[in-house]
Design goal:
Helix content of chain A: 40-55%
Number of domains of chain A: 1
Number of helices of chain A: 12
Low-confidence stretches of chain A: none
Strand order of the largest sheet of chain A: 1-2-3-6-7-10-11-12
Mean pLDDT of chain A: 96
Oligomer: homodimer
CATH superfamily of chain A: Aldolase class I
CATH architecture of chain A: Alpha-Beta Barrel
CATH topology of chain A: TIM Barrel
């Protein structure tokens, strides 16, 4: 999986992943109205509007970026219809050649973790039949339960050419409450980082990086530099650029000297660009797709400063 | 929420929660065959079979236990149809008077956590309309991201009379890998336990317990005794009895002197009782509901030894 991601990053000269985290107040009115007219003001309408919006965003940016990251919570809240919109979004993005990072942050063990693994990055078996359900290329996981909560996914990474990004140091203000606790001369997130590096060593591809990556928030540049030095073959998925306050300058330490090692996520900064300066005055609401494209190009230019 | 749970535990003299974690190889053939005849060997058939099976289990035991705990992974793996079976299971259980603990172990922050909170224990808003989607009474959460990943749920606990069970010390063999790390004279799980106790103090009900509970695995009786002493008003949800090897004797330290403070989960030991000794020789596969009832009564008798 990781070689596929690196190839696309290099081809496009762009280490950007766009977060598909729609919410109703970010969806242009014409899309919402169409859905409400068809389905009423219902969870079904919200789910249909999300899918329609995502298709527009994907169409606008799919030739510029290697990957998208749908956040399943936004869809799951609407029940079965929401989950279907998530699945349809994944399928649409893959049809457009994008790598899909499912931001699911699941944490469970044994047969429960196997069920998540089968559904999201493997195949579910119904007697002698088997089905691909969610179809993500890689998913995020939470490590608090230890290796038992990671191991059930590893076989699927091998067998189906998939990957993981495991939470190490998250971008939120209170991430330190648990992750920064001191354990024998190091921080908990450093220890977890070492575990992730070790778990990933059996999954290193042709370019020296592992398909088992880590989530390291853009809001912690110093900690990231430390992690970069101990997690040499681990790819970082970096949330927090843009809306959460991090800038390109903060991101230098997330990359290795080869210019690889990190993929930077922006969500609202791209998908809701049409509603924000400077794009708001340049694009109509109906042109949200073009505004997203412009925002991706600006982000690419911003990130180029790093190389 | 917690007062409602305690009232039911006392009325029924039974601190048992039954885990509704179906998997196809535990479902009686007649249910599977019916679903396959209607829908083929598809994820839809699996989801329909799960719901049918759960209804049988719930009918057999709903007058004996206070709560059930469906594990969402088992349903989520089958996509939208699976999620619908989960939602329908929650609704059916609530219709039979059971408290529902949604075992979702979500971990996310800010608007993402709000989306989970709205969907699972609140209401999702579509313009001026709002809907209840999943309808659980309480859900499990993973604390690795800190208070940011808990806080968005707390308002809903207050406004909708709901609860949480936050992972503190899990029952799996490798739970210690991260949870048992030493941080300044105590273990990480003890520190997390203190946080949960503190987060819960604003949610203490009439009986002195908080609606913000903790998950403490049955496989760690010594650690539980320590946690019991520092988490005096926190209710423990205790997985690991039965299939994972813990016995009633291991559970004494999970309870307070008032005989309250813990609810003990059994999943396969109850729902698949029909397939295991001693019930297998007493009940036909079609009588899985009666076998589950017998297993619940045996578990109740076993737990009575503690009081």
């Amino acid at each position: 999986m990781i070689d596929m991601l690196i190839k696309k990053i290099e081809e496009l000269q762009n280490p950007t992943v766009v977060g598909l985290d729609p919410r109703l107040n970010l969806i242009p009115s014409h899309i919402k109205e169409e859905a409400y007219n068809l389905y009423g003001k219902t969870p079904r309408a919200a789910a249909k509007a999300f899918l329609q919006f995502n298709k527009g965003i994907i169409d606008g940016i799919c030739d510029l970026i290697p990957a998208v990251k749908p956040q399943i919570a936004m869809y799951e809240q609407y029940g079965a219809e929401g989950i279907q919109a998530y699945i349809d979004t994944v399928e649409y993005a893959k049809g457009k050649g994008l790598i899909v990072i499912g931001d699911i942050k699941r944490s469970d063990i044994a047969s429960t973790a196997e069920a998540y693994a089968d559904g999201h990055i493997g195949r579910v078996k119904i007697e002698e039949e088997s089905y691909v359900v969610y179809r993500e290329d890689t998913i995020t996981l939470n490590p608090y339960l230890g290796y038992d909560s990671i191991e059930p996914y590893l076989g699927h990474c091998k067998n189906y050419n998939k990957g993981l990004f495991i939470l190490v140091k998250t971008s939120n203000p209170n991430s330190g409450e648990i992750q920064d606790l001191n354990i024998g001369g190091e921080k908990l997130y450093e220890r977890v980082g070492k575990m992730v590096q070790q778990w990933g060593e059996a999954f290193i591809g042709a370019r020296g990086y592992s398909s088992i990556g880590a989530v390291v928030g853009a809001t912690h540049p110093q900690q990231a530099e430390k992690l970069r030095s101990i997690m040499t073959s681990t790819y970082f998925l970096v949330p927090g650029y843009g809306a959460q306050g991090a800038t390109a300058e903060d991101l230098k330490g997330y990359f290795n000297k080869d210019g690889l090692g990190a993929i930077i996520n922006s969500s609202r900064g791209i998908i809701a660009a049409y509603s924000k300066a400077p794009y708001k005055s340049l694009y109509k609401e109906e042109e949200f797709s073009l505004a997203a494209r412009a925002a991706v190009l600006d982000m690419k230019e911003d990130l180029q400063k790093l190389f």
